[in-house]
Amino acid sequence: MTSAYIIHLNGIVQGVGFRPYVFRLAQEMNIKGWVKNSSHGIYIHGEGEEIENFYRRLIQEIPPLAKLTSVECRETKYYGFDQFKIIESENEEESDVLISPDIATCKECLTELSDPENHRYHYPFINCTNCGPRYTIIKDVPYDRSLTTMASFSMCKTCFQEYKDPLNRRFHAQPVACPKCGPVVQLLNHQGEEIPGLGIEQLLSGEIIAVKGIGGFHLVCDASNSKAVKSLRQRKERGNKPFA
Ligand SMILES: [Zn+2]
Ligand SMILES: [Zn+2]
Description:
This protein is an alpha+beta fold. It has six helices and nine strands.
């Protein structure tokens, strides 16, 4: 008889492409059942001829950004599922799952960013399952878009198609966005009014710009303009100390 396993993994297993990884491995090994996020990590119900091998590979081939702190596996009832699914996350009161840090833009995203044909050409908030914001946008676990600051941006058709496609790099990438549906950049003056441009003119004329990113502000000025640097030092009250 084919056996079934319940597998419970904890550690950094959310926001690092873990569910898509489990899904793909299950497809490849003809394992049926489900995977879901919970406030205590990831649960998998798997059944099929290859279940033992599946379990071995599951632990060995985890995504590069994932980290396991606990692994449990036991036999369970065989249901005879006819497919493998990512199912709705469970949200319990208590939580002990670790949260992934924000991850620098990956190589693939950088390539897309500079490709004029790509619909995320020059889009500053480009990200995928392998990179992008995590810690700074997560309000609560389990890690799902509805529990992040991205909840208020509904995906456009193109983004949603990528998000839904198991073979896509953005499959279940919670912060997925594009110029059509995601956050946009704006240039504001002292009064908080929107002004045209991206701040280049202002930088060239010696002004200082505060760039609001997802994790805080970066102060920018033209480092070759001594007047601009001096005024930044005065305003920051940093006489001589180097800037970070
Ligand atoms: Zn990426
Ligand atoms: Zn979009």
